[in-house]
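PROTEIN DESIGN WORKSHEET
SECTION A - STRUCTURE
LENGTH: 246
TOKENS:
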């Protein structure tokens, strides 16, 4: 059996809206292909984590309080995380995890939380705590050259700017900023997004994009995941798209 290794960062703190379910979805879809997904955790205070030893690094979403608590620990890991990124490890980041990998996050009280600085974008929250991007959102992403509608739920006060390579074009909802035309950040080995749900349970092809990338990197040749019966997921997606008019 082939094996992929995922590092779940701060699972006890970054788990808004069931974001840890993304790890479960990846595990299930790997298992259906005869791939074992070995899950490890990185918690605050762990000093021996070697991020280069993992195929996937995953961060879920968290509120301002949690982000402030773990920010220093994250920055202390910067060198090893940067090595993993340069080596091609896949990064999947949701909401708070997305924000923390940028330059900084300034919360609604004006407190500036340092980010890892892995990417150029930065996030500033509205000083009005009631002013948030909330609701269902649909974007059009490019996965291996094919257009794919990605659906999820967004709830964020932070407005993320200076995004040079977005995850997708907004079809319904807000995105990186209020009434933005784009959402998230993406590179070949990176998906960062505000979409909860959890993201991967509603979007099977995003899961398979991650798996395909990681297996291709491990095997040294293009890996195409064998099809899985996703009729239930696709029927649900169709109904949601019709309801949202996209």
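SECTION B - SEQUENCE
RESIDUE ASSIGNMENT:
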């Amino acid at each position: 059996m082939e094996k992929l290794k995922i590092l779940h960062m701060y699972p006890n703190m970054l788990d808004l809206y069931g974001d840890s379910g993304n790890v479960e979805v990846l595990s299930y879809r790997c298992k259906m292909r005869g791939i074992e997904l070995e899950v490890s955790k990185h918690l605050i205070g762990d000093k021996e984590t070697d991020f280069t030893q993992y195929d996937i690094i995953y961060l879920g979403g968290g509120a301002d309080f949690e982000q402030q608590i773990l920010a220093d620990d994250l920055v202390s890991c910067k060198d090893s995380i940067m090595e993993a990124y340069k080596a091609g490890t896949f990064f999947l980041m949701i909401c708070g995890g997305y924000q923390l990998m940028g330059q900084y996050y300034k919360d609604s009280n004006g407190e500036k939380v340092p980010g890892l600085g892995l990417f150029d974008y930065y996030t500033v929250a509205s000083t009005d705590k009631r002013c948030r991007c909330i609701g269902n959102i649909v974007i059009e992403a490019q996965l291996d050259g094919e257009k794919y509608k990605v659906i999820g739920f967004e709830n964020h006060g932070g407005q993320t700017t200076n995004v040079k390579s977005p995850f997708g074009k907004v079809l319904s909802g807000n995105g990186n900023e209020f009434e933005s035309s784009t959402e998230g950040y993406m590179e070949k080995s990176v998906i960062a997004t505000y979409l909860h749900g959890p993201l991967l349970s509603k979007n099977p092809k995003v899961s398979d994009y991650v798996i395909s990338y990681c297996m291709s990197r491990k095997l040294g040749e293009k890996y195409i995941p064998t099809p899985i019966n996703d009729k239930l997921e696709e029927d649900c997606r169709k109904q949601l798209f019709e309801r949202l008019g996209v």
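SECTION C - NOTES
Residues 98 and 192 are 5 Å apart (CA to CA).
The helical segments are 21-31, 64-76, 78-87, 96-100, 199-202, 204-219, 231-244.
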